[in-house]
Please model this.
Amino acid sequence: MPNNRTQDGFLLGWKEIASHFCVQTRTVQHWAKTKGLPVHRYPGQKGRVFARAEELERWRLDPNGAQALASAPLRRLTFRLLICVSAAGLLIPCLWLAHWLLKSYASAPEVARLERQDLVVSARNGKEIFRHSFPIAPDPWAYDDDRPMFLTEDLDGDGRSECLFLYHPSQRHVMAGRLICYSDKGKTKWEFQPGRRILFGRGERSTDVYYVRVARVLRSPDGRVRILVASGNSPNWPCQVALLDNEGTLLAEYWHAGHLTQMVLTDVDGDGRQEAILGGVNNLSERATLVVLDPERLPGVRAIPSAEPFQRQGPEPEAQKKVLLFQKSCLSEGFWAFNHVILLRATPDGLLAGVAEGISPEHPSLIYHLEKNLSVTRVTTTAGFLSRHRELENERKLDHPFSQREIEALHQVIVRRSAMVPAAQ
Model:
């Protein structure tokens, strides 16, 4: 993982560049000469070198960069083994061990990409391990940095990583999405298809065509490995949060009124166990929401009661520990039906939540800074939000400039134990 101490993404000098990759200075100098490592120099005969973290990360995914990174740690390991054991007569066994480590490291699935209708999985050195073709091409726009399409994790404890692929077909309403588990060699081990036909709202609506939005792997203190999967269709449909065992069997589920597209795992209450925090929209209140769930207490088939549209019927789950509802700004209050969470990240101090003030992620957004107990400490306006506010002022659709008073009002997040909050509140 890269060193995150240069928060602005600007690294000055060979030492900082080497620290970014956790290698020696001579190593990155060698990469710059032979592997195309993107470094720059200030003007002048002895201009100091510098690099940009985003360019280094792109190089990391390039075949040259992946090959260099794959070989660096194992070359150091092999060299140290040779020094330590040559005098003891263990050279041949250690050479075999180094060879085995190199082979295992180079052949482990690490990176995935899409090529039209194919999922292509490669090792860290860029070597292709396997590929799978789908009848309907996966939708590349369904994924981003916070919702990756591909996860690697040792699910069964055999020392080899399984691959989890969130298949999101590009032709919606034709084929349902799936969570597919492959072995490290590309064999399909199991598939989970989310959603099912259930009663919610004022009648029966089919939830057969659901898509996996986000998935996270849970490891309990007792060693159990499970997968938490949030799936949905359109924002008007309820979201299914499913808990699977390591073989893809549905253990428990939770249904939410509205879509939940963001998820982080963190210890909210300091009890040493991770809670799942999911972000999206609550259709009953028409507001952006965060839902805090205890994965250990997810019910089998129970969910929130309601006679309202778009809401699953059933008793309220004990797993639901807290629900946050974000205030609407004047943009979402006056021009769009609701706002919703489009970004959710854990930070050393708590959480960072991005809220789009409209129904689309492209709408102007606000950034909420929350402590670990989910209290709001700061609200930051983005340039897009302020620009849109001024445009509406000039068009006389808003009768006021944006003020500090509105910022203070946005701090007043509604906290509930239940998601059953009427739209009038």
